[in-house]
Design brief:
Blueprint: H1 3-25, E1 47-63, E2 69-74, E3 81-82, E4 87-91, H2 94-127, H3 135-168, E5 170-172, E6 177-182, E7 189-190, E8 197-212, E9 225-229, E10 237-244, E11 249-250, E12 265-273, E13 285-291
Antiparallel strand pairs: 1-8, 1-13, 2-4, 2-7, 3-6, 4-5, 6-8, 8-12, 9-10, 9-13, 10-12, 11-12
Length: 297
């Protein structure tokens, strides 16, 4: 008998036995994984479940300068209450103020020249010399007065243009509301077209609910609606229907469900957010349940 045919199977059996013994001696530890908070149960028997985004009433308004330049001053911080017309931030006005000063000086000079030409023409007409002087010279003095008046108008327009430039470099609040975000710092370069200061009315707020286009066929405006905060068991916020956004859009607000589809399209419905027992911040995602009347299919 071949020795290899006996030794190799024995070695294999010994290896298997050693492996089993080693596994039995190992201590398996169970990881303490925190249990995720389950979403609040629906208060309605027939319902549409959706995801909503809390936002200021009327949406978020972004204020930015119409010109590019270096930021000179930031006048607000997050949480400040502002009125329409209040200064939010400004670009550096050094050059614009210098141009305004030159324009105002030119206006003073032009105004003085006009007053001088008008005085000369008035003296000429009152003295009776206009009947003695040639027609050409009298017309020339009248034209000089008109030219001086035109220079005053031009200088005045330059002053208005310089003031308008200062206005374009100053960002003011377009609405009454609360400053939600400030993403601008003094000394940094700010090109136009950014979203550096966000303002909105947070008392009250609204919820923008994304309803799947397939579920929207069951939606009824008269149905009650309720929102719950994620991570806060038992939270309940009443919702009041405002309007439906007619344009169907791609889904942007995700619920976090592993089986969630992101290539769907949704109909957005706006609800006014009522008072609740928990504080709600703009930008929070909430779970929304919308009642479907029993008469609906």
């Amino acid at each position: 008998m071949n020795l290899r045919t006996i030794v190799l199977p024995l070695l294999a059996l010994v290896g298997v036995a050693a492996t089993v013994a080693a596994v039995k001696k190992m201590e398996f530890r169970t990881l303490d994984v925190p249990v995720p908070v389950a979403p609040a149960p629906s208060p309605f028997e027939h319902r549409i479940a959706a995801t909503g985004l809390v936002e200021p009433m009327g949406g978020v308004t972004y204020a930015d300068a119409a010109e590019s330049g270096v930021v000179g001053r930031v006048a607000v911080a997050e949480g400040d209450a502002v009125k329409a017309g209040d200064i939010l931030w400004e670009l550096d006005h050094t050059r614009s103020k210098a141009e305004l000063g030159l324009a105002e000086a030119d206006l003073i000079v032009a105004t003085a020249q006009l007053v001088d030409e008008q005085a000369r023409l008035a003296a000429l007409m009152e003295s009776g010399a206009s009947e003695v002087l040639p027609q050409v010279e009298r017309v020339a003095r009248e034209q000089s007065t008109k030219v001086a008046a035109a220079r005053v108008q031009r200088a005045s327009a330059q002053v208005e243009a310089a003031q308008a430039q200062l206005h374009r470099e100053t960002v003011r609040s377009p609405i009454d509301g609360t400053v939600l975000l400030v993403d601008v710092r003094p000394g940094e370069y700010a090109p136009p077209g950014g979203r550096r200061v966000a303002i909105g009315s947070i008392d009250p707020m609204q919820v923008r609910v994304d309803i799947d286009e397939v579920e929207f066929a069951r939606f009824a405006q008269r149905g009650n609606a309720q929102a719950s905060l994620r991570g806060v068991p038992g939270s309940s916020l009443a919702l009041q229907f405002l309007r439906v956004v007619p344009l169907v859009q791609p889904k942007r607000t995700l619920s976090g469900d592993a089986a969630e589809r992101i290539d769907t399209r949704v109909v957005q419905v706006l609800y006014a957010l009522g008072q609740g027992t928990h504080r709600v911040q703009p930008g929070q995602v909430v779970d929304v349940y919308i009642e479907v009347p029993s008469t609906e299919p």
